[in-house]
Structure formats: structure tokens, C-alpha cells
Amino acid sequence: MRLLLLEDDLDYRQSIKEYLQTLNYHIDDFEDGEEALSAIHENKYHLLILDIRVPTLSGYELVKIIRENGDNTPVIYITSLTDINNLSLGYELGCNDYIKKPFSPKELKYRIEQLIKLFYTNETKEQIKLKPNFTYDILKKELKKDGEIINLTKKESDVVFCLVSNKNQYISIETLRSEVWDDKYICEADIRVCIKKIRDKTSKEFIINQRGIGYKIDREE
Fold first, then answer.
1. How crowded is residue 93: how many other Cβ atoms within 10 Å of its Cβ?
2. Has residue 221 been placed in a domain?
3. N or C: which end of the chain has fewer CB within 10 A?
4. Number of structural domains, the chain?
């Protein structure tokens, strides 16, 4: 799949591009908003990854233009802006997701995968039904029971996101350590404590484990 990346920080742009290339995406990268807009007019992209504050044409202006032209290509903003007015403006103009800098490359990977599934297959919807009787918003990373949000810590939320993203598959301790804790050392007992805390907030059946294999969260069929 072909993705467009707009980011004016050279080192940041190169690191994102190189990482996404390892995932077999074709990446066209730009530092200038006008150049990116020209490329969008000339090429077909499956997804746009846009910084907001860039030369000549901001990420806001770019999305406004393409949406007015009927282009519904999914958009992820990558930004250090955190003010609610800035976030609201982005969604009003037509972006599909935000990632706040700094972020883990693996978070970007999952956000891209979910948007691609949402837009290009019938398999995944924004609201995912999970067993037993939970719902999960894959874009907002919100877990709910009977319409009420379950308050999770950052690491608990990241564990749920990782397990839900890997549909009905067991995820090993090593994979959780890599994707949630970014390969930083954490003992297996601490990961199990994190899993237990999630179960305490949900149910004992929410996260399933199989000794020697790993953990999973099952989706409703």
C-alpha cells in the first residue's frame, strides 16, 4: 500500500519512513505542504500521515482542500499540539485520527493497520464487540461495559490495544514486552500483575491465557 508522509523535521521524517518501509509500505515523504498536495493530486494514496505545522501549507489547510475536492483518503495527524481546540479543528476538517508526539512507532503501526482495515475491508469497524459483553473503540482506545468507560492506566490500555489488535490470537509475554514496554526490561511477574489488574477492572474471562503460549482477548463473532 502507498502512504504519504508530511513532516518537516528531517530526522523524524526519516525515522518514520524507514520504520514503515520495514512493514512493506511504499512511502512518499515531503517536508512542504504544497509539495504534498501536488503529490496527492497526481497519485493515489491509501492513507495520509500529516504533521500540522509545516511550510507553505499546513496540515489543516491541506485536509480542508482535499475534503472539499471530495477526496476521502483516511488521514492521521501527528502533532505535538494538545489543546482541545486544535484537536477539535482537525476532526471538524476531516481527519480520522491523531497521534501526539512523541509516540512509539508501534503505535503508529497499529493506528495505520486499523484505519486501513476500517476503510478498505469489511472486517473491522470502529466499535469492536469483545467477549464477554464488552465494546472497544479501536481509534479512541476506549474500553466500555454497558456504555460506561472502564478507566485503565496507560500500560493497561496499551496491553488491551495490543491484544485486541491481534484478532483472537494468543500473544506471548515476549511480544507484550516488545510492543507495550518497547523491549525495556520488565519481569514476567510484573506483566502478569498488569494482566490481573485489567481482569479486576473487567472480568476474569476478559483476558484468556494458555500456559506457555500467551494471552488473548476474544471478539464476538
1. 19
2. no
3. C
4. 2
Mean pLDDT (whole number) for 161-183:
83
> Containing domain of residue 57, as a range?
2-120
> Do 67 and 138 share a domain, yes or no?
no
- The C-alpha atoms of residue 156 and residue 191 are separated, in whole angstroms, by 10
Q: Please, which pLDDT band fits residue 82 given cuts at 50, 70 and 90?
A: low
Closest CA to 184 of 158, 152, 205, 203: 158
Reply yes or no on whether the pLDDT at 123 is more than 60.
no
**pLDDT value for 124:** 45
109 and 38, same structural domain? yes
In the chain, the percentage of residues whose pLDDT exceeds 70 is: 93
Is residue 221 scored above 90 in pLDDT?
no
Tell whether 104 and 13 lie within a shared domain: yes
16-38 tens-digit pLDDT:
999 999 988 889 999 999 999 99
Are 217 and 130 in contact by the 8 Å Cβ rule? The answer is yes
With CA atoms as reference, report the closest residue to 180 among 164, 160, 199.
160
Residue 182 has pLDDT above 80, yes or no: no
